[in-house]
Structures
1.
Amino acid sequence: MKRTWEEIDEKIQRGSVVVITAEEMTDLAACRGVREACRRVDVVTTGTFSPMCSSGVLLNTGHHTPRLNYRQAWLDGVPAYAGLAAVDLYLGATSQRDETGPSEYGGGHVIEKLVAGGSIHLRAEGHGTDCYPGRSAEPRFILDELKDAILLNPRNCYQNYNVAVNAYSEKILHTYMGPLLPDLRNAAYSCAGQLSPLLNDPEYRTIGIGSRIFLGGGEGYVTFRGTQHCPDAERTRGGVPTGGAGTLFLTGDLKGMSPEYLRGVSIRGYGVSLAVGVGMAIPVLDEEMARFTSVSDGEIPAPVVDYSADYPGMSGRVLGMTDYGELRSGEIILRGRKVRTVSLSSYAGARKISEKLKAMINRGSFRLAKPSAPIS
Amino acid sequence: MVSRSVMLGFPRKCVSDPVISDLVKGCGIEVNILRARIDPSEEGRMLARLRGPEEVIENGLSMLRERGVEISYPESSFIWQEARCVHCGACAGICPSGAFTICPETFMVGFDMSGCILCDLCIEVCYYGAIQSVEDYIGGCRK
Ligand code: SF4
Ligand code: SF4
């Protein structure tokens, strides 16, 4: 049984496509078998909602009178990167208002505020040259007044990730994985498991450069492989990476996104970031794709890593392996002891996105786009 | 049997009064002291979880009040703004008392203050500013 991208697209246009979420696909394949699931289902939707630090916005404010070439800029006091053409700025999600230490407000919050329609204060400075005589400006603007606002995330959707614990330190560790209690008292993870986009297409057969996606409540695209993309990571026999592997570079128009799916976060003792909601639709082209999309939490391994010494020291050591079935049960067994798990990624949010994308495809308002090149 | 978390404030005059042992021995209430700072020369504060039949706890609390102990309920220590909650479950994963829980079917987080022991771990673990200390909430420290 095979189907083509074109056949699926035609079905979407005719309104006869069969689309289910990755969770429903897991259940369907478990009770009817992969072959039958493949026969019945055209498209499987996935989702994830989690802090993704390598995110940001590229803004173009339009020109000033007299002309000003931004050399330094702050948005609501948060430093943005101005080493681009005259009135282009890049604001990274982890840029902080208070540069002296971890802060409560930063790039992620400015992005959330922008997309929520809030008014942002820009302070920009230039050198004053013959063609760009301006030296400074302090305008306020809202999203609609910007010429361009493009979400530009160089590393999102990590395909699998560490489970963080504190094995050796006697103090609470304040990490980007949240507080880690001494003596292995908790384990933090951040992955939507069976709902996660790249875990439903582990070999990047359908997600590639040019894939259209649900991004931050609007529409976006996979524009390239993400930074640190590592397709050669070790895998299970089913093809699932046993630790961090693929990543995606995502882009989309901020105008049209929603603060429901772009949320500034502040992580005590670490800094700030942006939680991003992403959803991808995976065409069930053949039985292999049906098998991939029916992956269950129990089949996705996750490495447990110590964040008191091994992670900061780059030791590469893995304390043990667990899987997302156990993680989501609330408890894992580590060194013969029960350890409570803490999720940083919102499974409820991932599920909501997969449902939303399913509804959009059913309505015909979201069309799949075949990649123009693979990301590997 | 009910369990209730209370914050007890001891003015200087009753710091040396053995009110807690009277609560345990005299009233038969189980007292679990979660946090305390009491210095005989100053005022003291104690966060405790009381367990016992409801009327017995009520009687015990009136006894404390009569002896000058100020009683407040830790409901006021932080605020959960459900509208800002993304249901990541991080608070439920760290909450030692079961006040924050995650539903195994919907993966939505629920909150029941009655068991809270005011450890404040949930405030730290919530990246989304959905759990804020009253001071921050009132002070509007978040934009
Ligand atoms: S940690 Fe915050 S956002 Fe996450 S479930 Fe708890 S209250 Fe909601
Ligand atoms: S302060 Fe928060 S984490 Fe601590 S017991 Fe209360 S609800 Fe749970």
2.
Amino acid sequence: MLSRRTFIKSALATNVALLATPSQALQHVLTGSEEIPLLVFADEHSLNSKHFISNVAERKSNIDLDIGQHFELLREFCKESPRGQVSGLTRDSDFFALEQIAKDFGFYTQYSATHHYSGNTLTHEVSSSKDSAELITSSLKNAKDQWPQWLANHMRVLPRGNSQLVTKKTQITLANTDQHDFLVSWSLSSNKHI
Amino acid sequence: MTKPLPQGITLGQLNAAVAEIEKVVGKDYVYLDDVKELRSYRDPYNTTDDADFAPSAAVAPQNVEQIQKILAIVNNYKIPVWTISTGKNFAYGGPAPRKPGYIVLDLKLMNKILEVNEKHGYAIVEPGVSYYDLYNHIQEKGLKLWIDCAAPAWGGIVGNTSEHGAGYTPYGDHLLMQCGMQVVLADGTIVETGMDTTANSKTGGLYKYGQGAAIDGLFTQSNFGVITRMGIWLMPEPPGYTPFMITLENEHDLETVTDLSLPLRVNQVIHNAPMTVDLLWESAMSVSRSQYYTGKGPMPDSHRKKMAKDLDLGIWNYYGAVYGPGPMMKNNMDVIRDTFGSIPGAKFHYDDTRKGDPGWDYRVKLMKGTPNMTEFSLLNWIGGGGHINFSPISAADGKSAMRQYEMIRKRSHEYGFDYIGEFLIGWRDQHHIFMLMFDRMSAEEKKRAHDLFAILVDDAAALGYGEYRTHLSFMDQIAGTFSWNDNALWDTHHALKDELDPNGILSPGKQGIWPKNLRGNS
Ligand SMILES: Cc1cc2nc3c(=O)[nH]c(=O)nc-3n(C[C@H](O)[C@H](O)[C@H](O)COP(=O)(O)OP(=O)(O)OC[C@H]3O[C@@H](n4cnc5c(N)ncnc54)[C@H](O)[C@@H]3O)c2cc1C
């Protein structure tokens, strides 16, 4: 019998994830971000998500299909770290649920992107602030199949703040992929503590 | 973004009302930012334009007195408020209001568990108490009581019961288990129902009906008041619990299994509401559609059969449970095995063989009232999954169930969607839940889903079926199908509405009940 095992990994990372070659525009966002507490969720059922979380420092992990088991961790984090950032690469439904819980603590979506494999095409659709959407979209495209690692490395420079979100889309053709993933990367933080 | 406004209200009036409300609850508890804060008061599963249900503001009062003051302000400006408790009514509209511009009255901060009585098995809670909250409280206190929760346990007792929601233990009919409530009327009057209306009441959580007309139901699926407290009966922890599942090989087994179930259910051989769940619903817990089929339209039978084989599932999967002392459970299980064993190909599954399977594991939790959120995994069946539930009531009768199933499946296939559904035998009825799942990123698919839903309402009505609950978009259409005797029922609702809420400030349009000033437009 096929049985799906989904791993939701959560990591409280206090160190900065390394930026391999940060662009100038992203670099200035990074300034001062090192101290921001970060909570990261990932769905380890998917290979891409596994790849992502393995590149995030100091992680804790949980394994389940039940996103409800992570509500307390998220609530505690939001209470203790009102200046913090919660990010992830998860199933769509997990993002949906965590976003709902976080809003009660004033944490809102500042960035989200869907990553969808269909046939040999990978589509990234990024919703982010005007000044970052284009940059993130092209970086994801350039990263090719290493996009989860790119995300992990740039977790801390994902936009914060209260700007209007715009949407950008890009498609890449990848050879030899039979993946079916539909994942969402996202970042939540509080407007009030920027 | 332009601020959504209620019909006939100017931005100046809205701002003036909001400024007064801020003085009552404090600025921190009034949410105005359309981009971030109010995004979470929308319904991402809506099949029409986001703006159709966009609120202008949300306010979170902390007590009854603040609610009374807010109602006085909005009465003055004639600005509608939309009451929510835990605000997780997804598949039926989430926290979003019926029309743009309403102010959401979010009772999430009124979240006290006022009493849990172990001896008599009841709890009295405020609206913001979620199923998780009540469960955790009972665990912390070590009380021998079970809760009964909806499949996603982040909702709460008051909101779910207000919607006539259902769960999976023997206490699954939530309105049946509700006992006593406190309600604030539009003019600020506080009303207690049932026994709590006697001075120094000692029996509020024990007897539902009180003296005179039992009016509790009037405040559910309606807009006649704001419920601020509710009593709910809790099941004493039984000495034993045996969940079981039966996989069935054929489409038409739905008819047989339903007919065999009714006598067992009404005679309490099966203690909870048994569920007959279709293959795709069960499979979506473990796999996604694209792992088996990447074509357009409904998944072909050949692919479904392969999936059933791989996952050791039936075309239908029947869940139920018995509770009590060992010998009693054994007796009941013998009858159940004899009864359903007569269906060719029926295969029984229990914890020893099925544990670890995601579908089984979360049902086992639900049938003993252990809160979880696993059912949300269904939404990943297709990427970016959104869904609205079409929920007609069927008789607990095989032919009736088959007729509804075939009608919905035919239509959903015609519109290019999979049938994903389940039947839940209440007492004499079945709640038939067709989870109409669509790609919420695709405008074309949303429109197609919307059209399908609308036609299903009419199809069902033509066959003599109505729905038990519905999404914001279809409240008026469905109200129109409950039209016997020249709309006598809705005329009665409207007479009550006009009397209790003459300015039409409480949730206008909820379930198709409109105040006089908006009735012509709906
Ligand atoms: C995957 C999935 C599975 C689901 N499974 C189930 C299930 O098993 N059983 C089930 O019942 N539902 C189910 N639902 C539907 C829904 O999620 C639940 O019913 C949920 O409990 C409703 O949200 P809530 O409890 O937060 O209520 P709320 O959203 O707070 O309230 C629901 C409605 O009740 C009215 N209301 C709320 N509070 C008050 C008040 N204080 N005074 C007056 N009126 C009020 C309002 O009209 C409001 O819109 C499911 C949904 C999804 C997405």
